[in-house]
Design goal:
Blueprint: E1 4-7, H1 24-34, H2 43-46, E2 50-61, E3 64-72, E4 83-84, E5 87-89, H3 97-109, E6 116-121, E7 125-126, E8 131-140, E9 146-148, E10 153-160, H4 161-165, E11 171-174, E12 182-188, E13 191-194, H5 195-208
Parallel strand pairs: 2-8
Antiparallel strand pairs: 1-9, 2-3, 2-5, 3-4, 3-10, 6-8, 7-8, 11-12, 12-13
């Protein structure tokens, strides 16, 4: 299927507010200090789950750091229409979750691996839809051009890191009438970021907000 350019970050973007005072050095130091890596998998807990990896892309804009997200197309089998990170299933040919996340990112949005400085991982996420997801953190410096796969990606956009770091933007909603379980929603502009993507963003904020 023919691919199309949906966003050239150097030409069509809105100005992001400051990044909560964090620099790239702060992010690298806090990720390294936290030592956040996926815990060894419990075979019982993860048996039968689909293994996946996503890239959490932090863009180093002069006006402030941002996080790149995508909106999935409505016809997909898994998580149709939802806001997500670029990524997908870990294939047998992938040498690591990092390799899978970078491969899927290239396929979905055209961002080449050489543009991504991998700096660590966030905690492994197990979803109610049967996925075990490894989030890979990457720093990205412009300039670059993104080309979306129209079969999988309906939209590419950026959210200011400062918005994600602010706990006031982390809304908790009950999953059941008894409110014994909750999920996060981050309402940004006209979008609601929820599910595994929101949980990963909250985890990112927890790591980066540590002094």
């Amino acid at each position: 299927m023919e691919r199309r350019d949906v966003l050239s970050p150097e030409l069509t973007r809105t100005v992001a507010p400051p990044s909560g005072g964090l620099t790239r050095a702060d992010i690298i130091d806090r990720v390294a200090f936290a030592g956040v890596v996926p815990a060894p998998q419990d075979e019982t807990a993860t048996k039968g789950l689909k293994q996946a990896a996503v890239l959490v892309p932090i863009i180093e804009r002069p006006e402030g750091l941002t996080v790149l997200l995508t909106k999935r197309t409505d016809h997909l089998t898994d998580h149709a229409g939802q806001i997500s990170f670029p990524g997908g299933r870990i294939e047998p040919s992938d040498a690591s979750p990092e390799h899978a996340a970078l491969r899927e990112t290239l396929e979905e949005i055209g961002l080449a691996p050489e543009h991504v400085e991998v700096i660590g991982r966030l905690a492994t996420m197990v979803t109610g839809t049967g996925f075990c997801i490894v989030p890979i953190l990457g720093l990205i410096q412009p300039p670059f051009t993104l080309t979306a796969d129209p079969f999988e990606v309906a939209e590419i956009f950026e959210v200011p890191l400062a918005f994600i770091l602010d706990p006031l933007n982390h809304q908790r909603h009950p999953r059941d009438p008894a409110a014994t379980r909750h999920y996060y929603v981050l309402p940004y502009e006209d979008r609601n970021i929820w599910g595994a993507t929101a949980a990963i963003l909250v985890d990112l904020a927890t790591v980066l907000n540590r002094a």
